[in-house]
Amino acid sequence: MSGENTGGEGAEIVPLKSEMRSEPSEHRNAGGEGAEGDDECREHCIGVPTGPPSGCLDGIKNTAHRRKCIIALVILVVVLIIIIIIVISLVCRNQCQSSLYLASQKVSCMDPWITYKGKYFYIAREEKDWFMSLKTCSLFNASLAVIDTQKELDFWVHFLGPFDYWFGLSREINKVWKWANGTEFRNQFPIHGEGLCAYINAEGASSTKCTVEKGFLCSCNKVAAILAKTTSSKVGSS
């Protein structure tokens, strides 16, 4: 009996086959849990990319779209600013060129009279035929403008712009051009057209029927201009 006990105590306990068979399944379960843990560790701890969630893709697309919109808006604003600067520069340049041109010609104003090289001129915006224009100038102790040189004509072409203004030349059919005081024109500059009364526009001196209504340009000397200024003030107030 004692020998059996001693042998029993020294004997190795051998696990049952059922227990041995269950161990792999337990290892497999343990291995599955470990695999899931490894994936989680790779994704969150090690940083191995496994792909963003679907919600993240939408957020990335929206962010990229907003970024494109912002860039397009910035480009549009910059283009508009450049266009505005160019337009302002062109306008200012034209105004400055006109101012410099007038300054170089030493023009001074005695509203509504303008001084140019010792003569005084009155620019009438109201439109009349050539004869009524001459009569209106006479009310200011003046006459329709006498223009002596090509340079003076060029000045008035630039100053008056694209509009038409009568000045002091007229003629009879097949006769020479004469000034309103009867002095013959010495052909200091060409007069275009076949009309009997002359006017100034952007193309220079031209002619047409005397009955056409246009603005007109009066001129006089310094003494007459002082009287004309007084007269024009009275006419304007009345």
From TrEMBL:
Positions of transmembrane segments: 70-91
PROSITE patterns reported in the protein's UniProt record: C_TYPE_LECTIN_2
Domain C-type lectin as annotated: residue spans: 116-219
Pfam families for the chain: Lectin_C
Keyword Glycoprotein: no
Cellular localization per UniProt: Cell membrane; Secreted
UniProt topology in membrane: Single-pass type II membrane protein
Cellular component, GO annotation: extracellular region; plasma membrane
Molecular-function GO term, any one: carbohydrate binding
Residue spans of biased composition, Gly residues class: 1-10
Amino acid composition bias (Basic and acidic residues), ranges on this chain: 18-30
Disordered: region residues: 1-37
InterPro entries, alphabetized: C-type_lectin-like (IPR001304), C-type_lectin-like/link_sf (IPR016186), C-type_lectin/matrix_domain (IPR050828), CTDL_fold (IPR016187), NKR-like_CTLD (IPR033992)
Matches recorded under CDD domains: CLECT_NK_receptors_like
PANTHER family reported in the protein's UniProt record: C-TYPE LECTIN DOMAIN FAMILY 2 MEMBER D, C-TYPE LECTIN DOMAIN-CONTAINING PROTEIN 180
Protein name per the record: C-type lectin domain family 2 member D-like
